[in-house]
Write a structure and sequence with these properties.
By secondary structure, the protein is an all-alpha fold. The protein is built from eleven helices and no strands. It folds into two domains: 36 residues; 213 residues, MetI-like fold (Orthogonal Bundle).
């Protein structure tokens, strides 16, 4: 018995060491980002992974906030991402209901085709999308970002919502039909409240996946009207020199909402993914 306890202790210590090492590796980029954002430009070219600034330059954040069009770009990012989340949730729920509850010949094929979108990298469609948007005069509009954000978030949303919906007893819907409820009322009153955990997971993951997207935004947008938050970094990039410390401050400000959301809603993400995977 003593030998078994010793093995268990060594194993648990090894497990804790691996988890702590993995956590440090994951957190280090964020620490490095904040560290460099509080230094001066001259201190960045010193040796070492981290810098101990002689003076903590909090004015870098003030400059990033005032001169980087932060509020305007933040508003655009928030608007586009919130709209994308709402549209993805709406389409995911009604599509999942159509594919899992309604009986029609092409339900499985349609679901498979949509889920295949998870295998396509979002940036692989840059050129064809740009050509289509250019002909439809959609470049430099909110739709240029909203359409691909929704399209590439929908497969993941459908996967999670349909997996969870399959676990809901059909007897609830049959009883509602007997009472005179229509399809849309069943979805709104019965199905949707039961899918809160799955919906919260889809909403959070859609928001986080699209928040820092820059390649499509830089390709489709040219005027400041609909530019998103990552564009603030370019405000401090010059032809011959860049204000690197302020750029790090901009990146820290851009990452802050995602970090806060993930910390506060981490349990919902884990719970929703686990329930969708097990029940699917």
């Amino acid at each position: 018995m003593k030998v078994e306890n010793k093995k268990l202790t060594v194993g648990s210590l090894l497990g804790w060491f691996v988890l702590i090492a993995f956590a440090v590796i994951q957190i280090f980029p964020l620490v490095w980002l904040v560290d460099f954002s509080l230094a001066s430009n001259n201190e960045m070219f010193t040796n070492g992974l981290l810098i101990i600034p002689k003076v903590f330059r909090f004015d870098n954040y003030v400059t990033a906030f005032t001169d980087g069009h932060f509020l305007q770009y933040f508003r655009n990012s928030l608007l586009i991402n919130v709209l994308a989340v709402v549209i993805v949730l709406f389409i995911s729920i009604i599509t999942a209901f159509a594919c899992t509850r309604m009986h029609w010949k092409l339900s499985g094929l349609v679901k498979t085709i949509i889920l295949l979108g998870m295998m396509i990298p979002i940036h692989a469609t840059l050129l064809p999308n740009y050509m289509i948007y250019d002909k439809l005069h959609l470049t430099d509009t909110i739709w240029a970002l909203l359409i691909p954000y929704v399209a590439f978030s929908l497969p993941q949303g459908l996967f999670l919502t349909s997996s969870f919906m399959e676990s809901i007893p059909k007897e609830l819907e049959e009883a509602a039909l007997i009472d005179g409820c229509g399809i849309y009322r069943i979805i709104a009153i019965i199905i949707t409240p039961l899918m809160k955990s799955s919906m919260s997971t889809v909403a959070i993951m859609t928001f986080l996946n699209n928040w820092n997207e820059f390649m499509m935004a830089s390709t489709y947008l040219s005027s400041p009207k609909w530019k998103t938050l990552p564009f603030s970094v370019l405000e401090f990039t010059g032809m011959y020199a860049s204000n690197y410390s302020v750029q790090f401050a901009v990146m820290a400000l851009t990452a802050a909402p995602m970090v806060v959301i993930y910390i506060l809603l981490n349990k919902h993400i884990t719970k929703g993914v686990a329930m969708g995977a097990v029940k699917g």
